[in-house]
Design brief:
Layout (H helix, E strand, L loop, with lengths): L1 E2 L4 E2 L4 H14 L5 H15 L4 E7 L6 E4 L3 H9 L7 H8 L4 E4 H4 L8 H7 L6 E11 L2 E10 L10 H26 L5 H17 L7 H11 L4 H8 L3 H15 L4 H15 L2
Antiparallel strand pairs: 1-2, 3-4, 3-7, 5-6, 6-7
Helix pairs in contact: 1-2, 2-7, 9-11, 10-11
């Protein structure tokens, strides 16, 4: 086991740890940072028995940049066309949550069913995914998120544990040292920043105006929170209204937008958002 000042990490996946060591040894003889991080990603998948990894760069007033993934081109285009607005890790960045190792369960709204539409979009290629990773503030206003994903096909064994979180914290300095270099060397190449700023503005305007042709101003405000995964109690607390009032707003939203659940509302939003970007 590895002993730290506060926590103990038990290493039971010896084959995975061997794969991590091998990948790490190969990573630092790669020709560039991009190749190094790809090799480290392969090592992380071995260490955590994961199926995929990716890196996202979050910035204010621009869509995030998705650096790498299996089927990267298709996924990058779709993610950057707007579904990032519902990404719990992006929302954590906007809230100013501290960086560090984080699990999706710890930062998502309590009503996870409300996020199933964004989950379905993410799962087009892989099926339902369990995710955690390292959020690293690489510049004062920029954050890199190194995410590790596992298919939810093995019941309870699909879920990352607190031990996994602690282990990733132990190796986080290796990832942090490379993420800032990647940003400087790769992430901005060929990116048209004025275009991306305009694109982000269009996407956020679509979000805030969603349903306003049929909803009152307050209903649209409630609808925006619902799309982000807020349940009735969350909405009531956030808007300082009663639980009953929040429920009434939600029922009217369903009726006016012709949906029957929060999941369908999220699906309608993503469908219209992606259609508007064609």
């Amino acid at each position: 086991m590895i002993r730290t000042t506060r926590k103990t990490v038990r290493l039971t996946n010896f084959e995975g740890f061997s794969g991590w060591n091998k990948a790490l040894a190969e990573a630092f003889i790669m020709p560039d940072t991009k190749a190094t991080l790809r090799k480290i990603g392969d090592g992380l998948c071995a260490l955590f028995e994961a199926d995929a990894w990716y890196i996202i760069f979050f910035r204010p007033n621009e869509p995030p940049i998705l650096f790498d993934y299996i089927d990267a081109d298709t996924r990058r285009d779709t993610y950057e066309d707007g579904p990032y607005l519902l990404d719990p890790f992006y929302q954590a960045y906007l809230r100013g949550d501290p960086d560090g190792v984080t699990h999706e369960r710890d930062i998502s709204p309590k009503n996870l069913a409300g996020l199933s539409a964004i989950t379905e979009y993410c799962c087009d290629h892989f099926g339902p995914m369990e995710e955690f990773g390292l959020a690293a503030d690489i510049r004062p206003d920029k954050r890199a998120f190194y995410c590790i994903s596992r298919k939810k096909t093995l019941g309870e064994n699909s879920y990352f544990t607190r031990n996994d979180v602690t282990l990733l914290e132990c190796i986080a300095p290796i990832l942090r040292s490379q993420l800032g270099v990647l940003w400087d060397q790769v992430a901005l190449n060929g990116r048209d920043t004025p275009y991306r700023i305009a694109k982000h503005s269009r996407i956020t305007n679509f979000f805030t105006s969603f349903g306003r042709d049929r909803l009152t101003e307050r209903e649209a405000e409630v609808g925006n929170l619902m799309i982000k995964g807020f349940n009735a109690r969350d909405v009531a607390s956030f808007l300082d209204i009663s639980y009953g009032t929040a429920r009434n707003h939600m029922k009217k939203i369903y009726l006016k937008l012709k949906v029957s659940s929060q999941n369908e509302l999220c699906g309608l939003f993503i469908e219209q958002l992606l259609s508007s970007s064609d």
